[in-house]
Amino acid sequence: MNRFERDLKDALEGNEIEVLTRRKAEIEKLTAEGKACKNAFRRTCIAQEVVKLTREYQAISEHF
Question: How many domains does the chain have?
């Protein structure tokens, strides 16, 4: 079971606010880190991670 599946299960069990808050904070942290990063390769990796987390965040929030 990966992190997304674990968070989705946890959200469906009633902890959706904590899960969404934690994921939103992580997205914001990575976005800020990506803007400050001077290494183009690292910035690309961070951007891909942000896109993935944003899709997962939206999938979890659609259930509520």
Answer: 1
How confident is the model at residue 64, as a pLDDT? Answer: 78
A 10 A CB-CB count for 43 gives 15
Q: Residue 26 — pLDDT band, cuts 50, 70, 90? A: very high
**Average pLDDT value for residue range 6-13:** 90
Q: What single letter denotes the amino acid at residue 9? A: K
Q: Model-level pTM? A: 0.87
Tokens of 36: 């400050």
Amino acid (1-letter code) at residue 59:
A
Range of the domain at 26: 3-61
Which of 1, 19, 12 has its CA nearest to residue 57?
19
DSSP 8-state secondary structure symbol assigned to residue 15: I
- Let me know: does 11 contact 63? Beta carbons within 8 Å: yes
